[in-house]
Specification:
Elements: H1 3-15, E1 17-18, H2 19-26, H3 30-42, E2 46-51, E3 57-62, E4 77-83, H4 96-108, E5 112-116, H5 129-142, E6 150-155, H6 169-176, E7 180-185, E8 187-192, E9 195-200, E10 218-223, E11 230-232, E12 241-243, E13 261-269, E14 272-281, E15 288-295
Parallel strand pairs: 4-5, 5-6, 6-7, 9-10, 10-12
Antiparallel strand pairs: 1-3, 2-3, 4-13, 8-9, 11-12, 13-14, 14-15
């Protein structure tokens, strides 16, 4: 990368520019663009990547990173899909389940997928490095790709088992996949209007402890790990905590398995998220198992419309 190219590229990023404009301007592919962006990130530059409501990806050079969900300010709504616990590598997992999520997203014009951990099955302490490598390759190679869809993801306790080999699985995947945005392990946040949505996964690793509490701007928390869909209001201030169903058939202990994913539509009042309509969709992506509307201002429960929790 010569100085002229570098200076021009960074000047475009400072103004904010779409992915399509960058590809056309420099006659490069999405993956070549990702390699360039990754080289700047390794230098310590902060490059924000977000998505518009019509699926256009935008890049901008920032002093501080903010992960922002797109809002249609005509309808005052933002719609995302939320998946968890794929456990790729487990006998009861299947990467094809993600294909069904993508089919659903494209059918409904949804461009953001939030992943609340355990995208890998990981290994045991005495497991072989080759097992983990194979799982990582499966995500990089076989996880579907669409240039208008971004995945904001956190790592869970199974993903964190890479530390046995000093591997950061989150970083490895985000460096190889231009559509994956790494929010860290155990806890991550995305901004919506003037508030934030918290993603959480219990790491069960004391050496990687962090603050699990709500922050002031959190209006709702989505958590993986339990493999069950459940709505609770026992967070601080009565704010909702949503357990995300698993995108696999992997059971946890003797509990039932609530396979599937969530289709969530946030409606804003001005800049503040006011409600979240949550639909539990089955693994095939062709059936709504339940639907519920939750008020986010004061976390008052509303009557469930259909299905069971």
């Amino acid at each position: 990368m010569n100085d002229d190219f570098r200076n021009l590229f960074l000047s475009l990023l400072e103004k904010g520019i779409s992915q399509e404009q960058l590809l056309n301007h420099f006659s490069i592919s999405v993956y070549e663009l990702h390699q360039i962006i990754s080289s700047f990130l390794k230098e310590g530059l902060v490059i924000q990547r977000n998505c518009s409501v019509d699926g256009e990806i935008y890049y901008q050079l920032k002093s501080r990173m903010k992960y922002i969900l797109p809002v249609n300010y005509e309808t005052k709504q933002s719609r995302v899909l939320i998946i968890s616990d794929l456990h790729i590598g487990h006998i009861d997992s299947n990467i094809l389940f993600v294909d069904r999520v993508y089919d659903y997203a494209k059918k409904h014009g949804i461009h953001i997928i939030l992943v609340t951990g355990d995208y890998l099955n990981g290994i045991k302490r005495d497991g072989e490095r080759e097992i983990l490598d194979k799982q990582i390759v499966t995500i990089i190679r076989d996880y579907p790709f669409d240039s208008s869809i971004l995945n904001y993801y956190i790592g869970g306790n199974h993903d964190k088992t890479g530390h046995y080999f000093h591997l950061d699985t989150n970083q490895i995947i985000s460096e190889e996949r231009p559509d994956f945005i790494n929010l860290g392990y155990g806890m991550g946040r995305v901004k919506i209007g003037d508030s934030t949505i918290a993603l959480y996964h219990d790491l069960s690793l004391p050496q990687y402890s962090f603050n699990h509490k709500y922050v002031k701007k959190d209006v709702i928390r989505f958590k993986g790990h339990s493999h069950q869909y459940l709505v609770k209001f026992n967070g601080e201030g009565g704010r909702p905590i949503i357990s995300v169903p698993c995108l696999s058939k992997v059971r946890v202990g003797y509990s039932k398995n609530d396979s599937g994913f969530l289709d969530v539509t946030f409606t804003l009042n001005g800049q503040t998220p006011a409600t979240a309509v949550i639909q539990h969709i089955n693994l095939d992506g062709n059936m709504i198992l339940s639907e519920r509307c939750i008020e986010l201002h004061n976390a008052v429960k509303k009557k469930r419309l259909t299905g069971q929790n």
